[in-house]
Amino acid sequence: MNFPYSSKKWMSISLAAVLTTTLGAGALTASANTATDAATQAPVAAQAAQAAQASTDKVAAETGTTTAPATAEEELTLEKAVQQALQTNVTLNNARLDAKNADINESLSYKTSADMPAEMIESLELAKAKHVGNAQGEMNKKLNALAVTATESKIKLGAQQAYYNMIFAQDDYDLKKQSLSRAETQLKVAKAAFDVGTKAKTDVLQAEMGLSGAQAALTSAANSVEVARMDLNDFLGVDLQKKWKIVAANKQTAPITLTMEEAQKQALSKRIEMTRVQEELKLAELNVKLIEEYSALSTLPGRQARNNVEKAKLAIEEQKRTISKEVAQAYLNLNAAKQAIEFQKKAKDSAAESYRLTNLRFENGLATTLEVIQAEEELSDRENQYQKAILNYNLAVVNFETALGN
After folding, report:
1. Per residue in 261-275, pLDDT tens?
2. Beta carbons within 8 Å of 87's beta carbon, 6+ residues apart
3. Using an 8 Å Cβ cutoff, are 158 and 85 in contact?
4. Burial class (CB in 10 A: 0-12, 13-18, 19+), 378
5. How far apart are CA 257 and CA 5, in angstroms?
6. What is the pLDDT of residues 313-351, one digit of tens each?
7. What's the predicted TM-score (pTM) here?
8. Could you tell me if 245 and 71 are in contact, meaning their C-beta atoms sit under 8 angstroms apart?
9. CATH class assigned to 74-404
């Protein structure tokens, strides 16, 4: 029988076939063993899983507990932040308790005089004990309530400020992440250009410096977020480590419908400071009336009482000026803050376009890495200033509403 190969060639082919068959058999054996092991282990794994689940169910049944899923972060809106502060702020709760204690002490001090019959009043001292004491007690109760209301207004203002500071810190962190991403991209471009010989090593080094600066800024921003969160939680009176899902809410940038004079008039009618000085004037006038009825205004107490009335009137005028000034400042600050948003937005858009054009120039060999980094830093700064302008506007709206007595 004639073979197409020589005897040596045929021997080599035969050996190769034997080796292939042997290796193939080994592979098939290994595959079969693997399949067998998997088939054997599958029921075992299933039994182990069932046993573990049964053990978990048994423990849950015995202890009356269940495995709770990971809790999602609680949402926090501006309105919810204010309501939370009104419920759990420590300063406000202390003010409420102080007002209650003051009311209790006041009621104990003038209750006996208030019960005095009118026919028993035969002297100025007794008249003051009954009428002035009663008026003083009622005024103190009203002022105590007003003090709580004033504290509530401050807490509302503080809660909104803490809320917007948290939003600003989070927005600043997001901007720093964008800046880091741009720095990373610039470093990649600089390295690629250096590898092909179109850029010098200094471009890579400058890009690395820019990246390091962006990383440091991001770290600082992350720290600011944590500090702002703790400040917010501290003001709200909740756990300092509590995490929120902040629902951003910016104040509307609608123009102010009130004139400055109208705003001042509204504030004078609503601010509790005016109520306080007006009540003090009523008390001073009551004292003069009693002296005139049971003594004489020409006496030393009478002249002092009339001077106290004049002082009370001056206090009212001074309070009017103070409130009018506060409203005017808040009014002007609000208008300035609104215009600042528009100007900062234009500056941010211009910086973004400058950064884009500088990158194009760099890609065409007409700009250095340093120029790109400087353009990116300017863009980052303008983005930050724009966010700060929004923050300042929101706070200006809050301050204006507070100045109005809302």
Report:
1. 999 999 999 898 998
2. 237
3. yes
4. middle
5. 105
6. 999 999 999 999 999 999 999 999 999 999 999 999 999
7. 0.67
8. no
9. mainly alpha
